[in-house]
Write a structure and sequence with these properties.
Helices cover about 65% and strands about 0% of the residues. The chain is mainly α and about 100 residues long.
Length: about 100
């Protein structure tokens, strides 16, 4: 688990999360991608939970927000990547 899961998610076509992401990148809607995969895609619920936690604790999480917007708000993945890459530089770590 952990590192092994990350490697499979990133590199293996056996990864449901990766396959879902590829389908969404090809223009599938989330529901259609999940129907195509025919199995649970854990990353979908994880993305939603991460987004909700970030909002609850007022945390700035641009990547989580971007993933949420693609999955649940129907935003265009290419446009979201462009927005992420072009966002203003800012302090990413605030020491408390």
């Amino acid at each position: 688990s952990g590192l092994g899961d990350l490697i499979v998610t990133c590199n293996s076509m056996h990864s449901r999360n990766r396959r879902c992401g590829i389908l969404i990148g090809k223009g599938y809607k989330l529901e259609d991608a999940i129907l195509e995969i025919k199995m649970v895609v854990e990353g979908v619920s994880t993305a939603k939970s991460g987004y909700e936690l970030a909002k609850k604790y007022n945390a700035t999480t641009p990547i989580i927000e971007a993933v949420y917007n693609v999955l649940f708000c129907g935003k265009d993945p290419k446009k979201i990547v462009e927005e992420l890459m072009n966002r203003d530089k800012c302090e990413e770590f605030i020491e408390q």
